[in-house]
Amino acid sequence: MENEFYYRYPSFQDVHVMIFVGFGFLMTFLQRYGYSSVGFNFLLAAFGIQWALLMQGWFHSYYQGYIHVGVENLINADFCVGSVCVAFGAVLGKVSPVQLLIMTLFQVTLFSVNEYILLSLLEVKDAGGSMTIHTFGAYFGLTVTWILYRPSLHQSKERQSAVYHSDLFAMIGTLFLWMYWPSFNSAVSNHGDAQHRAAINTYCSLAACVLTSVALSSALHKKGKLDMVHIQNATLAGGVAVGTAAEMMLMPYGSLIVGFICGIVSTLGFVYLTPFLEARLRIQDTCGIHNLHGMPGIIGAIVGAVTASCANADVYGVKGLALAFGFDGFKTNWNASMQGKFQAAGLFVSLAMALVGGIIVGEWKWLRQRRWDRCGWGTQKHIPEVNLEPPGILCTCGCGTGLCVGGCASQLRGRAG
């Protein structure tokens, strides 16, 4: 038997980059939360991977008294942590590292249970994790942030906005995610046709989603300008939505349609739905994960159920149909229609697990402790302080410091040099 390492390791590295670089930098859009976005994402991912290897190992690779670990287990652990990163986006800037670690501990456990129910008991096909990763992670995070609602947060609206350089860093995360998403959706697919289809379907969907998001973003702006929030997030929704049906015969035109629809839904969600959720339902979705992961995840589950129901031997071939959906063993008597019903059931199971789990975790007293909120970063000042005497004189040179003594602070630094 050939070692899977040589086939899977490149995909593992691609997924790894998405988790640590892609998600980490995507969340740096907040003007005063850059260190924490990247740093806490790093912390949660490193912790979550270790716990996921144990939890997923108990459910999927435990035999002869041992948990067996291979490169595919590492990829699945990254998938689990991807769900954690999604949920992190909902509570970004509102909880401390200790609270995030507690949240991660429970989410990884619930993720593993949900994954076992869907993939092992219901035999659902979900190569790219539209249900297990994105839908579960999004609605788990949204439920937790709903429980942890803080009325005073509306007073710091200006801190929730972005500045030029923070948007630029976030765009780095977007590009890494966009480039590696085909690897993400095809990482654990069977070699050959399934992996080939997953990569092509994802790529087509992502490409269509970019065009739709950019066009709609400009159309919705009064002056026809582009909104960086849409470009950073809505352009990725196509990769989320094609995840469940990635291995199936969705065809390139089907993938393009999915990307087109998700570009519209996600962009409209950022413009209209996110403000509504905060104003009416008290759901403070910092990163807009409902628009990038939640709704596209549900769309992906529906697309997967419909595509599975329509599968037939004329398209796949008799052998190809059995390989695509695992119609062997106890599933020998299954047909495409039955597979589609189980796919739909998987969506409701994921939603139920996310909502119930989010309520339980959000209501847990340790997560609601305000004493954990005191946390900061020790940073060095990159520009030496200048002792200005007397203070309070308005600067007239346009440097923007607000203080000036016979010349602005920048001029004083120039003399010192």
Automatic annotation (TrEMBL):
The keyword Glycosyltransferase does not apply. Keywords: Ammonia transport, Cell membrane, Glycoprotein, Membrane, Transmembrane, Transmembrane helix, Transport. One of its GO terms (biological process) is intracellular monoatomic ion homeostasis. It catalyses: CO2(out) = CO2(in); NH4(+)(in) = NH4(+)(out); methylamine(out) = methylamine(in). It is a multi-pass membrane protein. The chain crosses the membrane at residues 12-30, 42-62, 74-93, 100-119, 131-149, 161-180, 200-219, 231-250, 256-277, 298-322, 342-364. One of its GO terms (molecular function) is ammonium channel activity. Residues 3-374 form the Ammonium transporter AmtB-like domain. It is found in: Apical cell membrane. GO terms for cellular component: apical plasma membrane; basolateral plasma membrane. Homotrimer. Belongs to the ammonium transporter (TC 2.A.49) family. Rh subfamily. Ammonium transporter involved in the maintenance of acid-base homeostasis. Transports ammonium and its related derivative methylammonium across the plasma membrane of epithelial cells likely contributing to renal transepithelial ammonia transport and ammonia metabolism. Postulated to primarily mediate an electroneutral bidirectional transport of NH3 ammonia species according to a mechanism that implies interaction of an NH4(+) ion with acidic residues of the pore entry followed by dissociation of NH4(+) into NH3 and H(+). This is Ammonium transporter Rh type C.
